[in-house]
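Continuing the series of single-chain predictions for the mutant panel. This is the parent chain; the variants come on the following pages.
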Amino acid sequence: TFQSLRGDDAAVAQDNRVEGLWMRDCMATTPVGVTTLERGAQMRGICIEGNTLRCVNGAIVFEAGQSRYEGGNRVRANRFVCEKRVAITAHGNVSDDAAFDIEGNHIVAPGGIDSNLNRQRIVGNRLDGARSGGVGILLTPFKDSVDDQMIVGNRIEGYADAIVLKGSLQRMMIKQNQIALSRSGITIAAGQAAALSIENNQLSVDGMALRVDGEKGSVAIVGNQVEAPGEATSIRVRGEALACTFDGNHCRLLHDGRTPAVLLQAHSAQAASNRIRGDGRTDALVSLLVQAKVATVLGNITRGAIDANPPNAVGFNIENVPD
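Parent structure:
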C-alpha cells in the first residue's frame, strides 16, 4: 500500500533499465502511480496487474521519450481512478519481437489511454470519462506510422471523442467495441491507411459516429450498428486514393436533412446491404452519397435517397422506405 499527496510523488519510479517489473495486488493513493525517471528507458517484461491506483496525475506515465519496450509487457485487470490527467500514457518504441498489451482494466479518468506504441493490443477495457471532455483512446505514431494495432472489445463512454488516431497507419483492427454517451465515436485522421478494419462495433453518440480521412489505402467498415442524432453527416470516409468497403451496417441517423447521412468519397467504393434509417421526423433527403471513380451500390435499404457518382453504380436498392 502506497500513500502520498506531495507534488509528483509516484508509487513506483523506474530507473533507466528495468528487467522484469512485476506490480500486483497493490493499492496506491499518490499523485502518480508508476512512472519512468529518465529519458530513453529500456523496459522488458513489465507486468502491472490487479492493482487499484487512485492517482490525480495519471496511473501509468511512461512518457520520458524514446523509451524502448522489449519482451512481453502487459497492464491487466487494474482499476485506475484519475482526476486530472490521462490514466495510461505509454510512449516509446516496441521492438520487433515484443508486445504491449492493455487488457481488462477499469479506468475512470478524463483521458483513458494515450499511446504511440506499435504491436499493441487494447482489449476488453472499460473506460469511463464521466463527461469530462477528453479522449478515451488516443493513438499517435512513434515515428512514421502506427502499425499492428488491435482495439477490440472495449466499452468506452462519457468522452468527447471515444477513439482517435492522428497519423498514418499500416495495420489496425477496431472491432466489437461499445461506444456510448460520447460526442464522437471513431475518428481516423491518417495520411495513409494501408489496412484498416472497423467491424462489428456498436456506437451511440451525439455527433459524428465515424470519420476516416486518409490519402490512400484500404478501409473496410462492416457490420457496425450506429445511432447518431447529429445535425451534420454522421459517417464520412474521404480519400482520393482510398479503397472503401461499406457493407452490412445498420445506421439509425436522426438527421436534419441538409447533408447526406453517409458520405463515401474514395477512389473506389463498395456499398452493399446497409440499412440507413431515421425516425420518420428528422431524416436526410439523401441517406447515402457515394462519390468515387469506381463504385458499386447494391442491396441497401434507406429512408432517404441514394446518390452516386458515377450514376451507373446504383442498382437493386430500396429507397424511401417508411419507418
